[in-house]
Write a structure and sequence with these properties.
The chain is of the alpha+beta class and about 350 residues long. It is about 50% helix and about 20% strand. Strands 2-3-1-5-4-9-10-11 form an 8-stranded mixed β-sheet, with helices on both faces. It has a 3-stranded antiparallel β-sheet with strand order 6-7-8, with helices on one face.
């Protein structure tokens, strides 16, 4: 465990150093640097607290063993033995906790997120499933105490949505939702199916970390702005003014539309946020692809065209194909009870990362 202690001591020194730096007036005046150092301080604090608890256990274990060697009083010896037994049980628990805390964190995990749902194969049934998954996620957000706001939506000719995108705000959102990116497949009998045959449809889910200005500098000279009249549900006002916004990033061709807000200014703000996040995600994808040659994890391959999950209605089951986990609580799952699956994916990713660290 000497390697572990060496790492923890280095982290402790860095934690103390960063603590001093964030009180320096020169650093406070440099907002970008101050924000980054504050985030680093918060990330290191949890590890430093666990290190102090672990070091306390090691120090107490050492002093109790020393006492047992020299103590002759039977009662005192018994107390020392009990103390040693208690501390030796705590020690491996703290070591496991520290190993998990020392797994390199995705710096995007604490960010807010942009969630985009799009109908894929399956026609009307895929559009209905977009609405079902949208409902599932929003019920989960409510349970978590997260706030969401729809940025853009396109209704289907019948039921459901061709696509819908939203921004979500709260603690550690991207870290929770990032494993949801990919193709979600549904197997069920559509309402329009007269023969009772099971059909397979699919939708794509994309989860992007919401990029802040300090993460990605968007040059508005590279962006063409168009306004147009919003379409779809929303009351009589919606077609009377050109409140909808379309932004085109000329160098990359990325297009973002936002039409769900009544105010053109509000729609522009949302559209800029989504555009910045998409361009930031594209840059992250490029970096991740470069790293993929060195290490490819089971859970987060980064391939958004990969089929990640099947929702089978006749059997009442959900299967995540990345970790071969099947649950038989489809009704509760579609009502937002998805935390068990998210936790299993996070555990699988941590196990992969720990294996990578050991190799």
């Amino acid at each position: 465990m000497q390697d572990l202690l060496s790492k923890l001591e280095a982290i402790h020194f860095r934690f103390v150093e960063v603590g001093k730096m964030i009180t320096d007036p020169d650093i406070i005046s440099d907002m970008d640097r101050y924000v980054k150092l504050n985030k680093e301080y918060r990330d290191l604090e949890e590890v430093d607290n666990a290190y102090k608890a672990y070091k306390n256990v090691l120090d107490n274990l050492k002093s109790s063993k020393e006492m047992l060697e020299v103590e002759t009083d039977p009662e005192m010896r018994e107390m020392a033995k009990m103390e040693i037994n208690d501390l030796e049980q705590k020690k491996p628990e703290l070591e496991e906790e520290l190993k998990i805390l020392l797994i390199p964190k995705d710096p995007e995990d604490d960010k807010n997120a942009i969630l985009e749902l799009r109908a894929g194969t399956g026609g009307d049934e895929a559009c209905i499933f977009v609405e079902d998954i949208f409902r599932m996620y929003t019920m989960y957000f409510k349970e978590m105490g997260w706030q969401y706001e729809i940025a853009n939506s396109s209704e289907a000719s019948g039921k459901g949505y061709k696509e819908i995108s939203m921004s979500i705000e709260g603690a550690g959102i991207y870290g929770m939702l990032k494993f949801e990116s990919g193709v979600h497949r549904v197997q069920r009998v559509p309402e329009t199916e007269s023969q009772g045959r099971v059909h397979t449809s699919a939708i794509t889910v994309a989860v992007l970390p919401e990029a802040e200005e300090v993460d990605f500098e968007l040059d508005m000279n590279d962006v063409r702005k168009d306004t147009f009249r919003a379409s779809g549900a929303g009351g009589q006002h919606i077609n009377k003014t050109e409140s909808a916004i379309r932004l085109t990033h000329i160098p990359t061709g990325v297009v973002v539309e936002c039409q769900d807000g009544r105010s053109q200014h509000k729609n522009l703000e949302k559209a800029i946020s989504v555009l910045r996040s998409r361009l930031y995600q594209a840059e992250l994808d490029r970096v991740h692809q470069e790293r993929a040659a060195q290490r490819k994890t089971l859970v987060s391959t980064g391939d958004r065209s990969a089929k990640i999950r099947t929702y089978n209605y006749p059997q009442g089951r959900i299967t995540d194909h990345r970790i071969n986990k099947t649950m038989y609580n489809l009704g509760a799952f579609m009502n937002g009870d998805i935390q068990e699956m998210i936790d299993a994916l996070k555990m699988a990713e941590n196990a992969e990362k720990m294996k990578g660290e050991l190799n």
